[in-house]
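pls design
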């Protein structure tokens, strides 16, 4: 099993293995992250699209916090040593088993040794793979999530990575609510937000500009945050103490162009947060690609 620096060894309760032949652009292990540590400057991490992640686990009978894989822009190719059910959710992508296209990969049975591949999504960017029983990975500060900002958690998967599989669970025999995130496709993505905590540092014209502009996702976008390009807001000379923050916070750096914090976000670094994207809609932002358009709309 792979481990990272400072990683707690995985308990010996595995009942099979997952072997990676190709990991694509970026595939990481995620669970729901490290909570309650923001005062120490430790990001929560976890999946960029939590709704799709938890749905994948529910489909295969796992608790929602069970470690699973976040696949960015496809390219994952793997085999399991034992027969299991698997679920693929999030950004829709072509899925094959032993080279045969799977029409509906939301729940698929994988025989032992079968080769599963996930191609590049045709909308959105992050696809989730959950395996019945979950993957086994070392935990840091109670979580198996990979944090790209601090380097905490298991390293990104690579060709040759082998992960243990936890004990299989009964797969639900009743339909699961397929509440997929509305992965961006055509047109601007709309994300609702609430004002605060530093909205008072911006005048009415800047607040109106934030909500009226169709922003564009910058190439400088990753799991830390979605950087936006568009008409800058004028924050002037602001000196604030560094503050803890949350996923979805809309920070305005000296450039005046907003950054929407995602799963691996830092503390503020002294730059003001003008608002926070709602917990529901931040999953949408986590699926955007450079070049996508984003509208920030005040929540009612």
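designed seq:
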């Amino acid at each position: 099993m792979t481990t990272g620096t400072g990683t707690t060894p995985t308990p010996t309760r595995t009942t099979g293995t997952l072997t990676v032949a190709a990991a694509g652009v970026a595939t990481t292990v995620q669970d729901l992250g490290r909570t309650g540590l923001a005062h120490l400057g430790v990001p929560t991490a976890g999946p960029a699209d939590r709704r799709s992640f938890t749905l994948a686990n529910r489909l295969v009978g796992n608790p929602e916090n069970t470690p699973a894989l976040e696949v960015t822009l496809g390219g994952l190719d793997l085999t399991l040593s034992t027969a299991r059910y698997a679920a693929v959710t999030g950004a829709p992508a072509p899925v094959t088993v032993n080279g045969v296209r799977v029409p509906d990969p939301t729940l698929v049975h994988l025989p032992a040794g079968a080769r599963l591949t996930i191609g590049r999504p045709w909308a959105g960017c992050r696809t989730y793979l959950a395996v019945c029983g979950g993957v086994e990975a070392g935990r840091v500060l109670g979580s198996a999530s990979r944090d790209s900002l601090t380097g905490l958690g298991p390293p990104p998967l690579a060709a040759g990575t082998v992960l243990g599989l936890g004990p299989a669970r009964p797969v639900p025999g009743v339909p699961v609510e397929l509440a997929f995130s509305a992965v961006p496709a055509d047109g601007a993505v709309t994300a609702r937000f609430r004002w605060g905590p530093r909205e008072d540092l911006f005048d009415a014209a800047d607040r109106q500009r934030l909500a009226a502009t169709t922003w564009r996702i910058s190439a400088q976008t990753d799991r830390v945050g979605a950087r936006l390009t568009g008409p800058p807001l004028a924050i002037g000379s602001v000196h604030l103490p560094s503050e803890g923050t949350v996923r979805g916070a809309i920070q305005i750096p000296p450039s005046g162009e907003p950054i929407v914090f995602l799963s691996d976000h830092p503390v503020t670094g002294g730059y003001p947060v003008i608002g926070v994207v709602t917990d529901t809609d931040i999953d949408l932002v986590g699926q955007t690609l450079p070049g996508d358009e984003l509208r920030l709309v005040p929540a009612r």
